[in-house]
Design goal:
The chain has 16 helices and 24 strands. By secondary structure, it is of the alpha+beta class. Strand 2 and strand 3 form a beta hairpin. The longest helix is centred in the first third of the chain and has 23 residues. The protein starts with 19 loop residues before the first strand and ends in a 9-residue tail after the last helix.
C-alpha cells in the first residue's frame, strides 16, 4: 500500500464502500457537531468529507488542528445517509470514517482564508501567492491553463507544425515597448535584451527552410500593467508558416480557436468562419479596432446632416465647420425608458472626459418629430434622412457625439458598449471572433508629426511592388491583421516582407537609412538576402485566451505567479538590489540620484 494515499480526494464513491483507504491533503474546513467532527480534506483533485467520533483518541488533536495543515488519514469508506448526500461533489455519496491520522505539515495562522473565493487585497494575495493558488477558483484557472496549452501543442502538431525554442538572451529592438536589459559579464559595457517576441527568430526559422514553426513563447516587455496585460512577462502561441498568403494563416488559426473554445467552454461561437472587417470600417462602425461583435449596436456617421439649412443645432454645426465629425448610435425601442436612463448616459460620457452625448427620441403623431433636449433643432426632413442613414425607426433614440476623429472614436466606442450594457443586449453566453484587416502601413506620430510604422515594420505592403505609391505612404495598406474576440485583442500578425530592397525602401520612409537598418536588423536583412520564402504568422496571447475561457477580467487570475501593478514580485522580493561584488563582476555602478 502507498505510504501517503491509496486514492485522490476526488476518487471515492459508493463502489468503495467498506474499503480501508488512505488519503492525504489539506484541511479545507472543519465542522464540530459536538460528538462528531467533520473535516473536508482537499488535494489537487477535489474534496472528500471525513468524520471522526469523539470516542476516537485522535479526536482532540484533530479538533485543535489549524486549517490548511497537511494530514494523512486512514479510515473506512461509509455511505452517507440519503439526506446528507452532496450532489455537487464527486465524492458526495460517501464519507471516510477516520481511524487514525498523521500531521504531515503544520500550518501557521493564515493571513487569508482559503475555502472562500472572497476578494482580498492584491498585496496580501501576491505576497502569499502559494496560499492564493490553493483557492478553488484560481486553482482551477491554473489547471485550465495547463490543459489548454497541452491541447494547443497537440493541435499544432496535428496541423503539421514543429515546436522550436528561440533564444531568451538576444539583441535590443528599436521598435515596440521598452526592453529588459541584461548586462554581459564577458562583454563589459554591453547588454543583452530579453525578447519582446521571437519575431526575428521565427522569420529566420522560415529562411532556414523549416516550413511550419510554433512555440509557447515567453515574451518580456517593460510596460505598465493593465487588467489584460502583465507587467514584465507573458506567453503567446507564436507561429510562422512558409509559402503562405493571409488566408492560409487565417485558416489554421480559425480551426485552432474553434477547437479550443468548443472543447473548454460551454458558450456558443457566434461565428465559426470569422468575419473580416477592414480597419477603416471598424473604426467607423465600432470606434475601435477591437470590436465586441456580441454588441449589435453600430456607429453611423451623420456629419453631412449638419450642412443642412433645416438643422439648427448650431453648436455641432460650428464644430463640423472647424473639422469635427458627428457620429450617432441608435438605441432601439427606448421611447419608454425613463429620463434618468438618457441623462445617466450623458453624465457617464462627461465622466469619461467628453463634452457629453446629445440625444433625442423619434416619435410620430401627424408628423415625424424628435423628443428630447436637442430634438427641436431637427426638421422632419432631416429626421427622415437620419432614419434612412441609420435604419432608425419611430420609438428609437439616437445618441450624438461631435469631436475630432481620435476623440470621437474613443467616446463612441465606449458609448456603444455602455449603451448596450445598460440595455442588456450583449449576449454573455457566446464568443464572437473576427479579423481586423487592411491596416495602414504607416501613420503620423501625433506628437512629432513624423511618419512611423503603424504596426509591424517587417510586414509586406499590399499590391504589386512596382505599383506601390511610395510618395503617399499613408495610403499604403499592409498585409497586417488582428484577431479579436469579445472586444479583446488576442494577437496581431502579418505576412512578412521577405524582399531586402523593399524593406530598405519602407524603413527609409520611417526615417531609417540603409546603415541604420543594417545595424539594427543585421541578422534579419542578411538572412533575407540569401533566398527567403514568402512567409507569415501570428502570435495569439495565451493569457488572454485563458481569461476568456475562465471568464476573468484580470490577467492576474490566470497567471501562476504574477507581479503587482509596479512590476514587483512581492512573494520573492523582486526586483532586489545587487551586491557590490555582483556589480563589480559586471563592471557596473549604481548612480543613486536623489
Amino acid at each position: 500500500m502507498h505510504k501517503y494515499r491509496t486514492h485522490n480526494c476526488n476518487e471515492l464513491n459508493i463502489k468503495n464502500k467498506s474499503q480501508k483507504i488512505i488519503l492525504s491533503g489539506w484541511v479545507n474546513k472543519k465542522r464540530d457537531h459536538g460528538n462528531l467532527l467533520f473535516i473536508d480534506l482537499r488535494d489537487n483533485y477535489g474534496l472528500t468529507q471525513c468524520v471522526i467520533d469523539k470516542s476516537n483518541s485522535f479526536f482532540k488533536s484533530l479538533e485543535k488542528l489549524q486549517l490548511e495543515s497537511v494530514i494523512k488519514v486512514e479510515g473506512i469508506v461509509i455511505a452517507r445517509s440519503a439526506d446528507t448526500i452532496n450532489s455537487e461533489l464527486k465524492t458526495g455519496e460517501i464519507e471516510v470514517k477516520i481511524e487514525s491520522f498523521e500531521i504531515l505539515g503544520h500550518c501557521k495562522e493564515l493571513p487569508m482564508p482559503i475555502f472562500t473565493d472572497q476578494e482580498y487585497a492584491e498585496e496580501i494575495r501576491l505576497k502569499y501567492r502559494f496560499l492564493d493558488l490553493r483557492r478553488k477558483k484560481i486553482h482551477e484557472n491554473i489547471i485550465l491553463r495547463s490543459k489548454v496549452i497541452e491541447f494547443i501543442r497537440s493541435e499544432m502538431t496535428k496541423f503539421g507544425f514543429l515546436e522550436f525554442q528561440t533564444p531568451i538572451l538576444t539583441s535590443s529592438s528599436p521598435e515596440g515597448a521598452r526592453d529588459f536589459l541584461v548586462p554581459s559579464r564577458l562583454n563589459p559595457g554591453k547588454f543583452y535584451a530579453l525578447p519582446q517576441a521571437p519575431q526575428q527568430f521565427k522569420q529566420l526559422i522560415m529562411v532556414a527552410g523549416f516550413d511550419k514553426y510554433f512555440q509557447i513563447a515567453p515574451c518580456f516587455r517593460d510596460e505598465d500593467a493593465r487588467a489584460d496585460r502583465s507587467p514584465g512577462e507573458f506567453y503567446q502561441l507564436d507561429l510562422e508558416m512558409s509559402f503562405v498568403e493571409q488566408e492560409d494563416v487565417f485558416e489554421v488559426v480559425e480551426k485552432l480557436m474553434v477547437n479550443i473554445f468548443k472543447k473548454f467552454s460551454n458558450k456558443k461561437l457566434k461565428y465559426e468562419k470569422f468575419p473580416k472587417i477592414k480597419f477603416e470600417e471598424t473604426m467607423l462602425k465600432y470606434g475601435t479596432d477591437k470590436p465586441d461583435l456580441r454588441n449589435p449596436l453600430i456607429i453611423h456617421d451623420l456629419t453631412k446632416i449638419f450642412s443642412r439649412e433645416d438643422v439648427k443645432f448650431e453648436i455641432f454645426k460650428k464644430l463640423v465647420k472647424s473639422g469635427s465629425f458627428v457620429r450617432a448610435i441608435v438605441a432601439k425601442k427606448t421611447k419608454d425608458r425613463p429620463r434618468s436612463f438618457f441623462d445617466g448616459i450623458d453624465k457617464w460620457a462627461k465622466e469619461e472626459g467628453a463634452s457629453g452625448l446629445a440625444y433625442f427620441i423619434l416619435e410620430k403623431n401627424n408628423n415625424i418629430s424628435a423628443k428630447g433636449p436637442v430634438g427641436k433643432f431637427f426638421s422632419e426632413e432631416s429626421l427622415k434622412e437620419i432614419m434612412n442613414i441609420t435604419s432608425a425607426e419611430i420609438g428609437d433614440s439616437i445618441f450624438l457625439a461631435c469631436a475630432k476623429t481620435g476623440d470621437l472614436e474613443k467616446i463612441t466606442s465606449l458609448a456603444r458598449d455602455k449603451i448596450a450594457s445598460s440595455l442588456g443586449i450583449i449576449n454573455e453566453n457566446e464568443f464572437a471572433f473576427c479579423w481586423i484587416v487592411d491596416y495602414p502601413m504607416f501613420e503620423k506620430d501625433q506628437i512629432t508629426n513624423k511618419i512611423k510604422f503603424s504596426h509591424n515594420p517587417f510586414s509586406m505592403p499590399q499590391g504589386e511592388v512596382k505599383k506601390i505609391d511610395f510618395k503617399n505612404p499613408l495610403n499604403i495598406k499592409a498585409y497586417q491583421y488582428d484577431i479579436v474576440c469579445n472586444g479583446v485583442e488576442l494577437s496581431s500578425g502579418a505576412i512578412r516582407n521577405h524582399i531586402p530592397e523593399l524593406m530598405y525602401k519602407l524603413f527609409s520612409i520611417a526615417g531609417y537609412d540603409k546603415d541604420k537598418v543594417d545595424e539594427k536588423f543585421s541578422g534579419m536583412i542578411n538572412a533575407l538576402s540569401y533566398g527567403a520564402p514568402p512567409h507569415g504568422g501570428i502570435a495569439p496571447g495565451i493569457d488572454r485566451i485563458i481569461m476568456l475561457l475562465a471568464e476573468e477580467k484580470n490577467i492576474r487570475e490566470v497567471t501562476m505567479f504574477p507581479m503587482n501593478q509596479n512590476a514587483q514580485d512581492l512573494m520573492m522580493s523582486a526586483p532586489s538590489e545587487a551586491s557590490s561584488d555582483q556589480l563589480k563582476e559586471l563592471n557596473l555602478s549604481i548612480n543613486k540620484n536623489k
